[in-house]
């Protein structure tokens, strides 16, 4: 366990905003992670957990307590089941599954961050989400002060949401177990743009490596693979979730997908763009990415306050024009 006092949140997050940290504690296994959390809780020090820092807007005033950076590593395989330590980088895990002929997460290639953060917002992209393969999440429950194994029904997974997100700060993810499908071909491709790129129909399969390559190519084209050399990836990915509304309130011209129960999921990217915030709309040091209107990006010198103010302008414009309220996807951290 390493403790440092010379670090800013901006150094630990892909949006590169956020002030100084009182104590940064880097933990390298689950035992150290639980010990660091218990220690902060017992001493009454504010606690912030960070994996890859790719889904947080960190506060400009910094963090007046402990930031625990989860760097635990390890993947255990039993047949098609993988039990993965929380700090394992997500995309390394996806690459491992593709290389070893395990299907179920290939369409989630290129998403930054840690494996332990994936159940929090039920990470998803290109027709897959982690809820489809997660069979258990081992957590430390800060409310009950015990370790627990949460089964999928107890995780309350939903679109970019889960019980772990709805009860913020309660559950510390220690490891995640996935059940994957041994074989060299992907799960049925569930996203039209990906199917087109692969030259297959939606619902058909393709070689696992081809799916990974196609997803990475599509994501790079949109600045959605984190790369310090690509200013369009200085973001938290999509800044807003796709809003779900009753079919009667669908917006004319806006792409939508059935969402069950007489509801539709609207394209947040379309709404943002048509509310006057097309690609490359800038204000000060923040704005929309030049390759994707749904990603808000920062430039050196940006602040969290500036970014959140810009996000509020987008929300207001979409509400005024289309009567739909966008919900931010990243966590806006508050001490
Ligand atoms: C370029 C780019 C593209 C992206 N594309 C996608 C995408 O396609 N789909 C998608 O769903 N997301 C996407 N994201 C968002 C992000 O990568 C994911 O949400 C990712 O899972 C966050 O992981 P992280 O380790 O960086 O989490 P962090 O940002 O470090 O943390 C996110 C939240 O989880 C909490 N947390 C982190 N680790 C733990 C733990 N072990 N236990 C309990 N709580 C924890 C944090 O306190 C925080 O509230 C993208 C981000 C970027 C920058």
pLDDT under 50 segments (min length 5)?
Answer: none
**Cα radius of gyration in angstroms:** 20 Å
The H/E string reads: EEHEEEEEHEEEEEHHEEHHEEEHEEEHE
**C-alpha geometry:** globular
What portion of residues is helical?
10-25%
Order of the strands making up the biggest sheet: 6-7-13-11-12
Helix count from the secondary structure assignment:
8
Hetero groups in this structure are: flavin-adenine dinucleotide
Largest sheet: 5 strands, antiparallel
- Name the average pLDDT: 96
Number of strands: 21
Beta-strand fraction estimate: 15-25%
How far apart are the termini? 23 Å
By secondary-structure content and strand pairing, the structural class works out as alpha+beta
Question: What's the topology here?
Answer:
Elements: E1 2-4, E2 21-27, H1 30-43, E3 47-50, E4 56-57, E5 63-70, E6 75-78, E7 81-85, H2 90-99, E8 102-103, E9 124-125, E10 128-129, E11 134-141, E12 146-150, H3 152-155, H4 163-166, E13 171-179, E14 181-182, H5 192-198, H6 208-221, E15 244-246, E16 256-258, E17 263-266, H7 268-274, E18 282-283, E19 286-288, E20 296-298, H8 304-322, E21 331-332
Parallel strand pairs: 2-5, 3-5, 4-21
Antiparallel strand pairs: 1-2, 6-7, 7-13, 8-14, 9-10, 11-12, 11-13, 15-17, 16-17, 18-19, 19-20
Bound molecules: flavin-adenine dinucleotide (FAD).
Flavin-adenine dinucleotide is lined by residues 14, 49-56, 70, 86, 111-114, 116-118, 120-121, 123-125, 172-173, 224, 226, 233, 235-237, 331.
């Amino acid at each position: 366990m390493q403790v440092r006092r010379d670090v800013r949140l901006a150094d630990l997050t892909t949006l590169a905003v956020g002030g100084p940290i009182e104590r940064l504690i880097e933990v390298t296994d689950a035992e150290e992670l639980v010990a660091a959390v218990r220690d902060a809780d017992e001493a009454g020090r504010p606690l912030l957990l960070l994996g890859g820092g790719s889904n947080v807007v960190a506060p400009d005033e910094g963090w007046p307590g402990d930031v625990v950076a989860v760097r635990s590593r390890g993947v255990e395989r039993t047949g098609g089941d993988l039990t993965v330590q929380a700090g394992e980088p997500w995309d390394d895990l996806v690459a491992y599954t593709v290389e070893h002929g395990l299907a179920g997460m290939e369409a989630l290639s290129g998403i930054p961050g840690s494996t332990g953060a994936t159940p929090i917002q039920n990470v998803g992209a290109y027709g897959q989400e982690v809820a489809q393969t997660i069979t258990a999440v081992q957590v430390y429950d800060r409310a009950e002060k015990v370790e627990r194994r949460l089964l999928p029904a107890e995780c309350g997974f939903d679109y970019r949401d889960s019980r772990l997100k709805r009860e913020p700060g309660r559950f510390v993810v220690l490891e995640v177990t996935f059940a994957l499908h041994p074989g060299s071909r992907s799960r049925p491709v569930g996203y039209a743009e990906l199917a087109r790129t692969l030259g297959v129909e939606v619902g058909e399969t393709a070689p696992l490596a081809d799916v990974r390559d196609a997803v990475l190519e599509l994501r790079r084209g949109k600045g959605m693979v984190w790369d310090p050399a690509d200013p369009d990836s200085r973001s938290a990915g999509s800044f807003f979730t796709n809003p779900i509304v009753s079919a009667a309130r669908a917006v004319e011209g806006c792409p939508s997908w059935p969402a069950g129960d007489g509801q539709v999921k609207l394209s947040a990217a379309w709404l943002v763009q048509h509310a006057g915030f097309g690609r490359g709309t800038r204000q000060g040091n923040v704005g929309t990415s030049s390759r994707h209107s749904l990603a808000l990006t920062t430039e050196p010198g940006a602040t969290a306050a500036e970014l959140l103010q810009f996000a509020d302008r987008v929300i207001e414009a979409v509400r005024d024009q289309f009567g739909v309220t966008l919900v931010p996807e990243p966590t806006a951290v508050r001490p």
